[in-house]
Amino acid sequence: MRQLVKAAHLLLLPVVWAAPSGFPSSGNGLWYTETGSIWSRHFLPIGNGFLAAMTPGGTTQEMTQLNIESLWSGGPFADPTYNGGNKLLSEKDSTAAAMQTIRQEIFESPNGTIEGIDVLTTDQGAYGSYSGAGYLLSTLNDFNASGNFTDYGRFLDLDHGIAKTLWSSGGEEFSREAFCSFPAKACISNTSTSSKKGLSQTYAFSALTDMPAPNVTCFNNSTLRLVGLVADPGMAYELLATVRSSGGSIACSSSANLGGGALTNATITVDSASSASITWVGGTNYDMNAGDATHNFSFLGVDPHEALVAQLKEATSKTYSELLTEHQTDVKAALYDNFALDLGQKPDLETPTDVLRSQYEVDTGNPYLEWVLFNYGRYLLASSARGDLPANLQGKWAFDASNPWSGDYHANINLQMNYWFAETTNMNVSASLFNYMQKTWAPRGAYTANVLYNISQGWVTHDEMNIFGHTGMKAGEGSAEWADFPESNAWMMFHVWDHFDFTNDLEWWKSQGYPLLKSVAQFHVKNLRPDSRFNDGSLVVAPCNSPEQPPITLACANSQQLIWQLFNAVEKGAKLGGETDAAFLDEITNARSNMDKGVHVGSWGQLQEWKVDMDQPNDTHRHLSHLVGLYPGYALANFEPSLQNGAHGGGVDVDYTRQQVLDAAQVSLIHRGNGTGPDADSGWEKVWRAACWAQFANASEFYHELTYALQRNFAENLFSIYDPFDADPIIQIDANFGFPSALMNALIQTPDVADSSLPLEVTLLPALPPTWPSGSIRGARVRGAISLDMTWTDGKPTKVALKTSEGAIPRTVNVLYKGQVKATFNSKSGESKTISSF
Ligand SMILES: *[C@@H]1O[C@H](CO)[C@@H](O)[C@H](O)[C@H]1NC(C)=O
Ligand SMILES: *[C@@H]1O[C@H](CO)[C@@H](O)[C@H](O)[C@H]1NC(C)=O
Ligand SMILES: *[C@@H]1O[C@H](CO)[C@@H](O)[C@H](O)[C@H]1NC(C)=O
Ligand SMILES: *[C@@H]1O[C@H](CO)[C@@H](O)[C@H](O)[C@H]1NC(C)=O
Ligand SMILES: *[C@@H]1O[C@H](CO)[C@@H](O)[C@H](O)[C@H]1NC(C)=O
Ligand SMILES: *[C@@H]1O[C@H](CO)[C@@H](O)[C@H](O)[C@H]1NC(C)=O
Ligand SMILES: *[C@@H]1O[C@H](CO)[C@@H](O)[C@H](O)[C@H]1NC(C)=O
Ligand SMILES: *[C@@H]1O[C@H](CO)[C@@H](O)[C@H](O)[C@H]1NC(C)=O
Ligand SMILES: *[C@@H]1O[C@H](CO)[C@@H](O)[C@H](O)[C@H]1NC(C)=O
Ligand SMILES: *[C@@H]1O[C@H](CO)[C@@H](O)[C@H](O)[C@H]1NC(C)=O
Ligand SMILES: *[C@@H]1O[C@H](CO)[C@@H](O)[C@H](O)[C@H]1NC(C)=O
Ligand SMILES: *[C@@H]1O[C@H](CO)[C@@H](O)[C@H](O)[C@H]1NC(C)=O
């Protein structure tokens, strides 16, 4: 609807657009001709992982929306008895009995399914929500609110990580630019004018009305201090902001009557300055290191005040220009020094991003917009994941006190998708993800393993996680669909194994990676049991659920494939991880070999979603759970008959070839539809489908899904939106991150292998669409700690260089193009291989 109105408007008033001055000539950014009004559609994101902000590009008044990464309601801050949504120890025996009964019922049920597992679930308790931290208001005092502005433009410069707004008024030029610096751990906004009269601007913090009113005071004459509680009772937070000016004066005034709801409030006013800047920092009394039994799972840290004062002092010891330079150097290092992609795009500096998006068509595409969206994904991950916590459902951008799905960590596709491209596009952003799992999931998850599953080794968690160690099965309507997913940690271990496989960082593997993987495997090896329904000698999980889809059954393909890959990763990495426990390794190897592999071809040629052949051909569910081994996994993509056949169940011992498995997976993918179904219409389901089609080397289906996602599920600000036709939609960052991943999967593939002695197959341009006939990539990563540079012309690679990192573990590598091996080599630490004949 909105697009039609806009088009009609254009017919009446033809306008000539030009990108605002300062917009990168490469076209690497987003630009607009109007101030934003709807947060999820129009505001532009900046962030450094610790802090985040959204700017509408205001003129007379700029209302920057603020986030602090650990600002959450709920948890032990709200309820001292909070226990991660788990059963009580006193319930352990009855729970174990209930679990046994449920398993028996599944095995004995005529169709292998049961109705409920509610007896295993727990009320979510003080689960809480990621919360916004209010707004920073920058208000010009000597301009009429309805003043005449000309030459308005705003943009997000992805080359430098800066949001900028430009306008003129009364013949004078104004600009405001903002960025969040990772090295300075601070965000900065600078307003400047060409006017001789100078600026008069007032700064204030405003709070959300559904949070307790904070106190805002003058910390000193140029520094505002906000102290508040996210909820009462709840976590404490603080924002501290220093104002500086070029010329003029700065004064802080504080009063009980300044307006707003605060008990005390304060504002800082700059007068007659040629420019003014505000540098802000923020923190909470949350501490991820206090989430274990030693700290009584309190997650309670120190009052952030002292650290913030020091941080702010450090940041403001540098001039604005120094901070800006430091930030730009960091952005370049994080995003561009070691990686570059060129899709042969031509920058369009005459069409604003929202118009480009509204003109975008499925299948026709627009390489320029696709390239921008790719870069945007990397920018958003670097801007949200480099703090202490990983990127959540909305990255770190959320404005409300309570956000959709709590702005939490869903680990049945969403959190995984956030990180799919981290390794392949050479990003150093995963430390917070690994720390978060180790420090908030594992400690309480060991309790869950014990109290819910009666397993005393390892740990488990389910689909939905907060930052307070929520590891239980969250009760709710149809809870099994959402809650019954103890394999979430096995899926997350893809990222742990892949980080090692892509970097060969042995020191990390020994100290963090392998111990994490092992502790997850220890749980799952005990949670498998003999299949007493099919009685085929295989080990299965029961109860299980395909993510977010009934029925509750046994041996869900998703669960079995995930656990198989988990065990396989343990086998491949144990020795390098320093494993000395031979009994444990034997147990894993036996289980891996005897388990049901989650690979069954069903009655209509489909890859079965469950061991009981009950898939409906018309099931267009949003998740592609049973295809997890196709992408991002390899249990299907690189099906290894010698290791994955046997124990197929159903009383039939079938031996599949890889092609048979892939054919079945393709039948399932086709029947799953295009990612707009009666159940959902989100972006992540479309980009996942795009990645899967790329895995099948099907360029036209790949591009269809990729362009369909872009056309339908991305807002004017290119945020991925869950409900695209809502005027004020929900953002969900996953498709922003799934988009570059799918795109990468069309350019380069190295699916994992089931045995490290098997050659690594690097496939070049498996699904290149005709719209990207020529291009190049620099610094892509493939498995085996190898980096890859490639140029292609007329749809064919022309030059490819593979460089093995220092210290890499030698592998046999086959480089393939169009099914033909173009080169074979043994990778050696520090050595390069160039191929120029295709
Ligand atoms: C530890 O936390 C529990 C709630 O989980 C609480 O009942 C108990 O008092 C706490 N103990 C200490 C020593 O703080
Ligand atoms: C299994 O059988 C039960 C009892 O007849 C029925 O209610 C249920 O819908 C069936 N489930 C499936 C997935 O067919
Ligand atoms: C503000 O508005 C008044 C009249 O309403 C006008 O005289 C004045 O020039 C305006 N100031 C600016 C800076 O536009
Ligand atoms: C805005 O511009 C119009 C026409 O150019 C003029 O009539 C009006 O006075 C201006 N308003 C302000 C507040 O400057
Ligand atoms: C703030 O500035 C005023 C006026 O310049 C001065 O009197 C006062 O001491 C300053 N206060 C602080 C806390 O620096
Ligand atoms: C705000 O200040 C009042 C009065 O000093 C105090 O009672 C209250 O606890 C403060 N609120 C917060 C959130 O610190
Ligand atoms: C604002 O930015 C300009 C341009 O980079 C710079 O010269 C000026 O010092 C900055 N102002 C402040 C107060 O930091
Ligand atoms: C403080 O006062 C300003 C100016 O009136 C207002 O905009 C802001 O919302 C107030 N802040 C709080 C936290 O109440
Ligand atoms: C105000 O406090 C901040 C934070 O400690 C400090 O950086 C700044 O120098 C102080 N300014 C004044 C005028 O005292
Ligand atoms: C990755 O980033 C971290 C900071 O988050 C830094 O300590 C580390 O040295 C970086 N590693 C590489 C390989 O650049
Ligand atoms: C799929 O087909 C079955 C059997 O014909 C029917 O019961 C079911 O409602 C259909 N489901 C959808 C989503 O159309
Ligand atoms: C997506 O699938 C729906 C349902 O089959 C169909 O109506 C629609 O045309 C398809 N759209 C695209 C772009 O594939």
From TrEMBL:
Annotated keywords: Hydrolase, Signal
UniProt keyword Lipid biosynthesis, yes or no: no
UniProt keyword rRNA processing present: no
Domain Glycosyl hydrolase family 95 catalytic: 320-747
GO terms classed as biological process: carbohydrate metabolic process
GO molecular function: alpha-L-fucosidase activity
Residue stretches making up the Glycosyl hydrolase family 95 N-terminal domain: 30-288
Domain spans labelled Alpha fucosidase A-like C-terminal: 761-828
Any single Pfam family the record assigns to this protein: Glyco_hydro_95_C
Cleavable signal peptide: 1-18
Annotated protein name in UniProt: Glycoside hydrolase family 95 protein
Species this protein is from: Schizopora paradoxa
Lineage per the UniProt record: Eukaryota, Fungi, Dikarya, Basidiomycota, Agaricomycotina
